Amino acid sequence: MLTPGMGAVSTTFMAGVELVRKGCALPIGSVTQLATIRLGKRTERRTPLIREFVPLAPLDSLVFGGWDIFPDTAYEAAGKADVLKPHHLEEVKGLLSSIRPMRAAFDRAYVKKLDGTHVKKAKTKFDLAEEIKDDIQQFKKGTGAERLVMVWCGSTEVFLDSHLVHADPAKFEHAMKTNHPAISPSMLYAWAAITSGVPFANGAPNLTVDIPALQELARQHNVPICGKDFKTGQTLLKTALAPCFKARMLGLKGWFSTNILGNRDGEVLDDPDSFKTKEESKLGVLEHILQPQLYPELYGKMCHKVRINYYPPRGDNKEGWDNIDIFGWLDYPMQIKVDFLCRDSILAAPIVLDLVLFLDLTQRAGLRGIQEWLSFYFKSPMCAPQLYPEHDLFIQSMKLKNTLRWMMGEELITHLGAEYYD
């Protein structure tokens, strides 16, 4: 398991997996470890754990590695991130101290608030990508790992639009060799992973694999890809509440969301160009769920605002405030206020675990390219170019479980048929 970025999210993930393996904690928040799946009719009462239904890799088989712009071990990085309590870190000190990051491919032009010293030097971006490919092979050889998965756990890059150099693999490779500015560091990791046959998940709102060139390469190399931007706090609640309003045909006049966050992610997002990348990821949620073009009287004039504020004292304990102005029968107004005091990396870590195990399963099942069934985990989920993304949390959950049923040759759940009388 490889993570570009060895900060709060990835070290919390590594520490958590080790604590679970040692019997010191439960994998709370992990669908692969704790969720069940219904099979057949309700009268059959077959509800195995997902990890017993599909052949997921066991937690004991996972080994960890990654890259970072700072040379700290995973133990040192976890201490600085200040997510986990000291007694938890001491329990896993042996493992985390043994994990040293490889030098990162980094360019401050894409993450303006950070400046690392543990970085690769090369003449071209193509050379950097080739070095990442070599790192991947060395990691595999050194650990004895049979299969690999890469999950981007690095920072949010500045906003990038799609460019002509993203159109196909040949143009993309030429752009790397000429150091084109439309090629970001996260794209180098994605290219290296895909061309090495390694599944890739994008945990940030960066453009990364949302381009034709890398999607075509994923199909050519039989590699599954998914993204983007882990759905953790405020957006998780948004994708649960908005379907409720739509299901009951309640109108929405406005939704104002603001966040305060003090970790490295908050510092990076204090830069307007990086914030624009995150804002784009967050803003599309309501539009796709509520479909104002179909329900103009209810959602055609809704006002949706998102703010993120860097507030160092809060650390990793993010707070999301939402003011929601809805209206009901005869246009009478109502309000909902939500104050979610969450822990960003605590919510993200089980997502990383699930993506690692599901992507490994996906590749073994022979699937390749965009894995829309993993939309459940992302704020801005990828989908085929001719489709629109599905943001509704409950539809996403059904799609995920039905895909697992399909993989194992079980009947899909459609809620049709007289189940009690068959």
Order of helices and strands: EHHHEHHHEHEHHEHEHEHHHEEEHEH
Query: Total domains, how many?
Result: 2
Estimate the mean pLDDT confidence.
94
Question: Globular, elongated, flat, extended or rod-shaped: what is the shape?
Answer: globular
Major sheet: order of its strands? Answer: 4-5-6-11
Beta-strand percentage range: 5-15%
What is the oligomeric state here? single chain
Q: Characterize the largest beta sheet: strand count, sense, and whether it forms a barrel.
A: 4 strands, parallel
Look at the helices and sheets and give the structural class: alpha/beta
The percent of residues in helical segments reads 25-40%
CATH architecture of the largest domain: 3-Layer(aba) Sandwich
Beginning-to-end CA distance, first to last residue: 45 Å
CATH superfamily of the largest domain: NAD(P)-binding Rossmann-like Domain
Contiguous low-pLDDT stretches (5 residues minimum) are: none
CATH class of the largest domain: Alpha Beta
Number of strands: 11
CATH topology (fold) name of the largest domain: Rossmann fold
Number of helices: 16
Rg over alpha carbons: 21 Å
Write up what this structure looks like.
The mean pLDDT is 94. The strands form three sheets. A four-stranded parallel sheet has the order 4-5-6-11, sandwiched between helices. It has a four-stranded mixed sheet with strand order 8-7-9-10. It contains 16 helices and eleven strands. It has two domains: 2-230 and 346-407, Rossmann fold, CATH 3.40.50; 234-341, Dihydrodipicolinate Reductase, domain 2. It is α/β, with parallel strands linked by helices. The termini are far apart. The longest helix has 21 residues, at 344-364.
